[in-house]
Each structure stands twice: as structure tokens, then as C-alpha cells.
Amino acid sequence: MADEGFKRKLAAIFSADAVGYSRLMGDDEEATIRTLTEYRETITAQVKQHKGRVVDSPGDNVLVEFASVVDAVRCAVETQKQIAERNSDLPENRRMLFRIGVNLGDIVEEDNRIYGDGVNIAARLEGLAEGGGICISGTAYDQLKNKLELGYEFLGEHSVKNITTPVRIYKVLMEPEAAGKTIGEKRKTKRWIAVAVAVIVLIGFAGWYLYIEQSKRIEPASVEKMAFPLPEKPSIAVLPFNNLSNDPVQDYIAVGITENIISALSNISDMFVIASDSTLTYKGKPVKIQQVSEELGVRYVLQGSAQKSGNRVRVNAQLIDATTGHYLWSEKYDRELQALFDLQDEITHKIIVELQVKLTEGEQARISQKSTTNLEAWSIANRGLALWMRKSKENNAKAMELLEKAVELDPNYVWAWVRLAWTHVQAADQGWGQNPSEHFKMFLEISKKVLAMDEANSDVHALLGLAYLLQKEPEKAIAEGEKAIVLGPTNAQAHVLLAVTMNDIGRFDDAIRLVEKAMRLHPYYPAYYLAWLGGGYRMTGRYEDALKVCKQLLDRSQKGEFPVIYAHLYLVELYTEIGKEDEAQAHAAEIFKIEPGFSLKRIRSVNSFDYQDPALLERRLKVLRKAGIPD
Question: Are the CB atoms for 591 and 602 separated by under 8 Å?
Fold first, then answer.
């Protein structure tokens, strides 16, 4: 192919973008635009001073070309210093930090635009940098070394999409005391004395070294042993962050961080994210990464911890490729508590960059979208969530009270409104309130309220879909359920709620598909998933599959996870349909032991018997009458 119209050359590429830009815009759009404009002028002035050329500046990103990597890094350092000075005059929640990546590599230039591996690697480096920090490639480092009064920290080799060889990455250390130092890099020495000393040290401490390394080692997970086929998309489980505070009351911080990261990642169509309720089963348990990967069928695992100390929070996070047993990155953060929202964004962003996931514009907006910037409201709401997850009448009531306080503090806190709605659903469904109809009414009111607040929220549309279904408007319920899945492709609950609607209108194959997908997203799914799956199998004539599932449901019901009377009822129906009358009678007898006066009048109170087409209900009632269940 002819090279007419473009040329190749070696250049230093500088890529920068703002951290938490979407949150800042959401808080105060005009102030954010003013700050961004001022900081762009700062960057542009530095670029000009250091003989660079601004190639592009879409949104909050700036792409610059330099002829010299020394000039590029000098520009990056001076830019970060000047932005830090400007930030010191702003309140902490209004400060705008930039990440900067610098690479020396081959690029293609065409019509004053630049493309190629050199640009792609610079963008990757920028994504790995901390807010206010700079990362450079190995090629840039090799040219710099002692030419600038800077230090460097080797961050290892990282794979970059469409680049065959892993890229060496260094963090620039701008503190004066770090000048001339390179840490984290094993360097060879030619002096025989140093070699001799090293050999003696190695011999003397070999046993201790092996002990330490063995204790750190992560056994790789076996793809062949995984409980589920490994998805083609990058798949991840976010383990519950550990609360390292001595005070159990502070557990809500760890719970909130975990939930928010999972929620943000779940908005991305090119990722496969395990539901939080499934990863919650590992909370407080000494599990191995290998075990988590094989049981959940995922390649990557994020683990971490949080500790509140006064007005600050310390967070550790590690991303691990379980199939190799290697840490992809490990970071320690010490931030003001008020900066917790940006920190959660930063961790989410690092995961996306590390796994090389390409985002759509809508996904970019959604993962940075904050339901609140009110720390007190966030704290109270997450304490409510922690209680709600421990299902009981008392905990549900306390959770409802806390979530009500959270939305009083921030009336636009969508996440808290959605969780409050679910406490009302729980109260109405379980009969935990004095007036179930009042709880149902509150649920419907909240469902309509949250849609006006956030039309791009998966949970909001899933909630509204259930509301429409309960009001006997299945077409609207389907529309909302489908929107919920588009906006949250790994939202297990959204899949199940749409399956309930599909069951209601007799689209049983669709219901089966949706429940099966939800089970994969939520491997430790609640028992009621089995009720909907078994019902779909039964109504489509897949009796062997239905029987297997309903036996599992009975087993879990006997452990208190589902009303045992209904598990027996489904088995009565199944055994009658396949002509095994003795087995059907045995389960019918169990029903009458539990409730001697049980009759078909109770059937309409069972959700799985609720259909838009009366003929579908009559089909099932006819079978139960045959089995001896009275009208």
C-alpha cells in the first residue's frame, strides 16, 4: 500500500485526562467548565514553552506530540506542579486532577492528526497513572534515565491491546529526595564483589525467601475445573472489601465501596460481572483466589480492604488474573473521606484500563455517574443496605428507616431511593408491615419518582418494570425490563424481573433464557430463581429438567430459603403430569401436614401461577385437582 498522504516518524506522545470529570460536571457544570478551560490554558502554555504541539483536545482529554521525550516529561512535571498549585486554592471536592502518560514510539501522521501504537501506548499509560501523577513507558525511561532531576518507580510489564510485547511502565517520582533513584527494578551489577555478596545473601536467606514467596503465591485457577465456562468477555468477581477498623459499625464503608464498584462495572456491555450477592458469600471467609475463580467461573478477581481513621480512609486494592496467579496491579490509597467517591471511580477506571475494555460514550457517562456527593447520606444508605442484606423483619424495618433518612439528606439520591423501594417490596411480600397495601403504594410511588431522576439507570427501569407488571400492564413492563438489561447487561436482578414478566404473558422460553443468564451472573442465586426456572421448564414440557430443578428447590426450601409448601406443590403438579401418581400423592400429603385446610383458593396468592391468559392458570389447576387438591 502506498504511504501517500501520511508519514511515519518517532515521537514522544503526551496524553492527559481529568479524573472524576463527570462527577464535577454533575456537581457544578459551569464551575467545572471554567476550571477545565483554565487548566487547558495552563497545559497549552506549558506545551508551547517545551516545544510541543497540541494535536487534539476532545472533552477533558489532551493529546500532545513532542520531538524530544525529555521535553515531554519536563512539560508533564511542570504541568502537574502548576495544576497542584491552582488546586490548592479550591475546596477539595472541586479540585480537578489530571493523569498523564508519556511514551516514545512510532506514530503515523496524516492531516495533522496522529495514530498508531505510539499513541495507543501513551493512552494506556495515562489510564494507569494516579490523579496528579505521571507514568512513562520503558522506551521513554531508557532515553531519560539521569537527564532529569527525577526518580522513577518500576510498575512492571503490562500487556497492551494489539501490542505483541508487554510494555515496561514507570511511575515518575517528582519529590526532590527521589531524584536519581529508580525503585522496584532489579538491576545487574558487573562488580564481582557485589556478585559475591549477593550470592552469600541468597544462600543465607534462601529458606526465608522461599517461605515468604510461597506465602504470597497464588495458585493459578484451572479453566477445566471451573463450575461454568469462562466467558469470552473479561470476567470479574469483586470480593467484599474487608473492614480493617476495630469498629464493626464502620463496616458500611467496605460494603459501600464493594457495591459501588460492582454497580459501575455492571454498566459495561463488554464485561461479565458477578452479582454482589454472590460475592457476598465469601465475606469474612479465608478463601483462595483460585477457589473464587473456579467456583464463579471468572478470570479476574478484585480484593481489597478499607479502614477509616478520623477524617481519612485507607483503601488497599489488588486486581489478580486468577488463571495465571499474577497480580495485575496493587495500590494503597490514603484519602480524605470526602474524596471516597473519586477513589471508587479511580479503582473502577484502573480495572477497565487494565482489562482493556472499550467503553461507549454512554457507558463512560454511567460509570462516573454519582447518585450523591453527600457523604452523610452515602454512609447512612450503605448502613441500611448492610442491614437489608441480612433478611429479617427487624433488619428490613431498620434498613427502611435508615434509607428514609438518606433520601431526606439528599432527595436526589437515586441509589438510596431504589433500595428504599425494595424494603417496601420485602415488607409487603413477607407481610412484615401492619398494612401491606401501604407498602405496595409506597413502592409504586418511588418507582415513578426515580425514573424522573435518572433515566439511564438499570435498577430504576427494572424497578419500574415490576411496578407495571403488578399493575397488569405487561407491555410496559417488558419495555422497562428490556431497557434495564441494555443499561445493565450484567444486572442479574433485571434479568429475573423480566423473566417474571415473560412468565406472566406465557413467553416461557424467554423466561427460561433470562433466568439461566441471571443464574450465571449470580452463581449463588436465591432459591426463588429455581421456582421460575422450574416453572418455565414445566410449561414448555421439559419435565426432566423441571423435576431436577424442583427437587433442588425442595432441598433449599427445607433449609429455610423458600416456602416449603410451594416446593411440594410444584412437585405434586409435575409428578401428576408425568403419570407418577404415588410420588404426587406423597408430596400432597406433605402439603396437608403443613396446612390441613390447603386448597386451590390459595393458588392465586402464588406469583408463579399468575398469568395474563386464564387458560394457562386453568391448565395447572386441572392437574392439581386431579392430584386431589380441593377447590
Answer: no
